[in-house]
């Protein structure tokens, strides 16, 4: 059973209620570990793209504020905006025809031939 708090100087009924709630919303260790494993896999796969520079974790798991039911494990990838394949999109974006961020993200997700 995980420990959710440091022992208070004087335990009150409120402490027991809060601990009870924490136990009810806690994410099981096997579920949390699987989410972290999948998040690592996604980041490793994204880093295979030539424009990928680094990855990062964000969201409730990264901050330690996750509760059940666990729905996602957030992460992100930093892209090199001047990557050669993105330059055409940047030029179009300057003309106002295409949202620059949308164009880069769309290109990032396409498979290379």
Question: What does it look like?
Answer:
This protein is mostly helical and 113 residues long. Helices cover 48% and strands 10% of the residues. The model has no long low-confidence stretch (mean pLDDT 79).
Secondary structure: elements and pairs:
Blueprint: H1 13-25, H2 29-46, E1 52-57, H3 59-63, E2 75-79, H4 87-94, H5 100-109
Antiparallel strand pairs: 1-2
The tally of domains stands at 1
* Rg computed from alpha carbons, rounded to a whole number of angstroms: 21 Å
Instruction: Enumerate the strands of the largest sheet in spatial order, edge to edge or round the barrel.
Output: 1-2
Which class of secondary structure composition applies to the elements?
mainly alpha
Shape summary: elongated
Number of strands: 2
Q: In percent, how much strand structure appears in the residues? A: 5-15%
Oligomer: single chain
Task: Sketch the major β-sheet.
Answer: 2 strands, antiparallel
C-alpha termini separation: 51 Å
User: Please, how many helices?
Assistant: 5
Explain briefly what this protein structure is.
By secondary structure, the chain is mainly α. It has helices spanning 13-25, 29-46, 59-63, 87-94, 100-109; strands spanning 52-57, 75-79.
Task: Throw out a few tags for this protein.
single chain, 113 residues, mainly alpha, two-stranded antiparallel ribbon, 2 strands, 10% strand
